[in-house]
Amino acid sequence: MISFRRAGLSALSLIISGLAPFGVAQGQNTASQPGTTNAVSLATWNVAKHDSADDIETTLPSVVVSGAPRSFQVVSIPIPDAFARVMKLELEMIPHGDFVVLGPRTRSLPSSSRRQVGVTIGIPASGLAGRIVAAEARFSSPASPTLIVPIEIDISLVRLVLLRPKSGPINGQAGSDVVLPFDIVNSGNASETVLADLVLPSGWASRDAHPAAIVIQPGETVKRRARLKIPALSSTGSSFVKIDLRSGPDTLASEMMTVEVFNSGSIGREAGPLITTGIAHAMDENGHANRIFTVAATGALYDSVRIDARMSQGSALGGAASNAFARLGAYQSATSVTLSSPSGQLSLGNTGTSFSDLTGLYPYGQGGRLNLQHADWGLLGMGALSLPAIGSTERKPMIGLRAERLFGDAQLSTSFSHLADAGTSPRRLDAVGVGAAVPSIFGSTFKAEIAERRFQDGSGLGWATGLVRTGPASNEEFRVTHAPGGSDAFARAANELVANVSERLSSRTSVSASAWRTTDATSVFSGLKSNGFSLRPQYAIRAATTVAIEARSYLFDATSRPTPSNTGGGFGSREDQLGISFSTYVRQYYLNSSAYIGNTTRTVSQ
């Protein structure tokens, strides 16, 4: 009997010892949440009788938080329930890699607060995007095994790709090749795959027939160069090549590079823009001779200045002669000269511009316009005389100035104008306004402006506000404007409400929609009203073939003012249409077809 009992005890001891590793493994695999542990693992530890509780470590599920590089995250770690009643509980925080734990790394946790503990972890600037184990919390007690709670941080994506042209001038000879070296720097925290797209001057060509995608790791700098062919008849002087780094539909970086083009057969004063002269002669339907003489100068000058100038003299009296000149590419135009560079533009002759929705839209006359552009500021000025009306020589001055400057992410602007023109329905505006544009929700920009407006028949305070978001696959705009004086004071209308939306829903599907409503009054009409909407979904059957359905509605109503010879009246129109369109192209051939059904109504009242 005695030997039998000893044998039974020995067998029982072997069975319990054999269960020990199985219990620990089971405790690790069945843990479902922080703060819980498996009773089998604790019982096995008691039976196995190790020399120290520190010899057993159990890893519990991770605690996951999100954060950006160069930030601090407060992590709430639940305390395992197994330590709820132990007398002494120690916490040790062990950071991984470049992560930093603020405060003491070891601490004793009182029994009065055993539910959770807070820890602040600093995310390094070099942290790569994605989920990574930042630290581990080790809970230990003399009466229990050590439980480990890993802390994982899902580091947010930072996309920052820089395009750095090589320093020094880039020179090329007309008719030969030129090489543009540049560096691509990935200062973000994720690998990027980019393509370098080139925007070339007219006639230039790239020698790289099939540019390959460039893969750049975080912190890496890749050296690249573009080989370009300069046409033999290229204008001498400064030409501009734009390089865009694209990743799918997104433009990650863009840079303008200047190439100084010279011609070995021309030096000094002989180099310059391309000058073209022409003379066209045609007979009209009445047998009268019509002649037009034109001179045009287009091309790059030295010192990064480009010129576009045109002058024409002659007359086109008959319709047949005008059609003949159009076929020859000759047409009458006012004398004008435009000098442009990357930092500004100067126009002389017939010129026009817009200052803002409230201080003047589309004034046009004969004079000069100067537009200076800088990374942080811009300046626009115009001084001109209005064009004379037919049968009159009366002209009015048109002067305006607009200045804008960046302050951080916000843009502030101010403008004033004194605008007038002559004719049977003269317009006039004296305005001073201030505006601002600041970043808003969902990557949009909020714009607002107020201005004091004085016009022909009165004055008033105008205001305008809008929300605009522009992206590679979507565009949204919502604008509300109140401009006293309306179109008689160089505005689109007295009151305007506009909404435009364009969205790419998938790689093949897109939709665009717009709606508007305007009201106005002029010296001729006591009331002008228009409103409407359009909706156009489009589907790409393949890359070069699209089909679209369009629905649109338009309503216009006008009421004229009474005159001594007319009691006044009104007229209007309404159009409702529904149509389908199909377009495709193969190489240089393009085909477009559309069909619409609808209803049109015209109204006239006395």
Q: Gist?
A:
The protein contains three helices and 37 strands. By secondary structure, the chain is mostly beta strands.
Count helical runs. 3
CATH homologous superfamily title of the domain at 2-155: Immunoglobulins
Mean pLDDT: 82
Tell me the CATH architecture of the domain at 2-155. Answer: Sandwich
Structural description of this entry:
The protein is mainly β and about 600 residues long. Among the domains are: about 150 residues, Immunoglobulins (Immunoglobulin-like, Sandwich), CATH 2.60.40.10; about 110 residues, Immunoglobulins (Immunoglobulin-like), CATH 2.60.40. The chain is about 10% helix and about 55% strand. The protein is built from three helices and 37 strands. The strands form five sheets. The chain has a 19-stranded antiparallel beta sheet, with helices on one face. Strands 1, 2, 4, 6, 8 and 9 form a six-stranded mixed beta sheet that branches. A hairpin with a 7-residue loop joins strand 27 and strand 28. The longest helix is centred in the first third of the chain and has 29 residues. It is extended. About 20% of the residues are buried. The N terminus is likely disordered.
Q: Can you give keywords for this protein?
A:
57% strand; 19-stranded antiparallel β-sheet; six-stranded mixed β-sheet; disordered N terminus; Immunoglobulin-like
Secondary structure elements and pairings:
Elements: H1 2-30, H2 39-48, E1 57-59, E2 63-67, E3 72-78, E4 90-95, E5 100-101, E6 106-108, E7 116-122, E8 130-141, E9 144-155, E10 161-165, E11 171-173, E12 177-186, E13 192-199, E14 205-206, E15 214-216, E16 221-229, E17 237-247, E18 250-262, E19 274-283, E20 289-301, E21 305-315, H3 319-328, E22 336-341, E23 344-352, E24 364-373, E25 377-386, E26 397-407, E27 410-420, E28 428-439, E29 445-455, E30 458-470, E31 474-482, E32 495-504, E33 509-520, E34 525-542, E35 545-560, E36 570-586, E37 589-605
Parallel strand pairs: 1-9, 2-9, 11-18
Antiparallel strand pairs: 3-7, 4-6, 4-8, 5-7, 8-9, 10-12, 12-16, 13-15, 13-17, 14-16, 17-18, 19-20, 20-21, 21-22, 22-23, 23-24, 24-25, 25-26, 26-27, 27-28, 28-29, 29-30, 30-31, 31-32, 32-33, 33-34, 34-35, 35-36, 36-37
Helix pairs in contact: 1-2
